[in-house]
Amino acid sequence: MQYEQELWPNNRRRLKSGLYAITVLAIGIIMVAVATIFWDDYVGYHQTWGGGSREDGWPTTVRLIGFWISVFGVVLFIVAMRYGDRKNPSFKLNKDGVLINNLGWNQVFFPWSEIAGVEEVTGKKWPIANIRLVAIHKTIAAQDPKFQSFLKREHVAKKKPIIISGEYVREDASFFVSQLKKYYEQGKSSPTNP
Predict the structure, then answer these.
(1) What is the percentage of the chain residues whose pLDDT exceeds 90?
(2) Domain 86-189 in CATH 2.30.29.210
(3) Structure pTM?
(4) Cβ burial 111-136 (10 Å sphere, 16+ → b, else e)
(5) CB–CB of 143/99 below 8 Å?
């Protein structure tokens, strides 16, 4: 399918995710460091039933939790750096509908017949369009199963509209949003759509 308009991703979302991961990693490292500093003062050794000894005291718990938080931070950082699809646009548009690849891994095409409304919102820095679907459950069921749980969580449980924002794209999204509204109105008024 040919698309007339495309918006390509920038690195802003990736950088935000990376900073979040580094913060989590730093918290874990600090916890391990604090536990290590106070280890000798607060850790005691107690005999176990099996004849061995066990370390006891708050630094053992803090160090263990800090270690797992650090591991989680490293995993988050790896995911953030490999995050998303950098080879495909975040949004594509033509007279048949709009393709959304907002997170970089869940390309979903919505024809105008499945869209109940398009609302342009004035963002602080970027243009934003909110898209409401006619039958969200039917639309979700038609998507790839690996994306269905994400779509249900975001758009059914949290009742969020599908958002097209200029925040995470390279170019100015103003023209894309205006074309989106124009094509939506044309698509709704065409004889092939109810």
Answers:
(1) 20
(2) yes
(3) 0.64
(4) ebebbeebeeeeeeebbbbebebeeb
(5) no
